[in-house]
Write a structure and sequence with these properties.
139 residues, alpha/beta, D-Maltodextrin-Binding Protein, domain 2, 6-stranded mixed sheet, 43% helix
Length: 139
């Protein structure tokens, strides 16, 4: 009985994570990535890498609390709230372990920034049409 109960929660958590990823898409410029797993994506957005395989510097772009996808990104990537996502990054930057991410208020700002900055990676809503060369599939 305990195994069935545990299996239900593991499967439910996976389905919930998958449904959240359908609300957002990942875009990047000169990252060398065509697709990433959820685990790889979390590592990227938690500042585990400083350079891409293309030798471009990693530039993390995250939504501000005013951005409609901010709660989805915070829950999916940081297993928390927007405030905890911001605190996580403040701590990394204060410790000198990473450059600060760029926080942007909407999808259009995110697309424009990423198009202009090689090495940048971020999220936009699935409702927004992303330029084909920027889309990174989440597998």
């Amino acid at each position: 009985m305990r195994t069935v109960f545990l299996l239900f929660f593991v499967c439910f958590g996976f389905i919930q994570a998958k449904s959240q990823t359908t609300n957002i898409q990942i875009i990047g410029n000169s990252t060398g990535l065509k697709e990433v797993t959820l685990k790889e994506c979390k590592s990227i957005f938690k500042g585990k890498y400083s350079n891409w395989k293309t030798n471009e510097q990693v530039i993390i772009v995250l939504p501000t609390s005013k951005n409609e996808i901010s709660e989805i990104v915070a829950k999916l990537m940081f297993d928390g709230t927007v405030k905890s996502m911001q605190k996580y990054w403040l701590s990394l930057v204060f410790q000198g372990r990473s450059n600060p991410p760029i926080f942007l208020e909407n999808d259009q700002e995110t697309i424009q920034f990423i198009q202009k900055n090689p090495g940048a990676i971020g999220f936009i809503s699935n409702e927004t049409r992303a330029p084909k060369g920027l889309i990174i599939d989440l597998k």
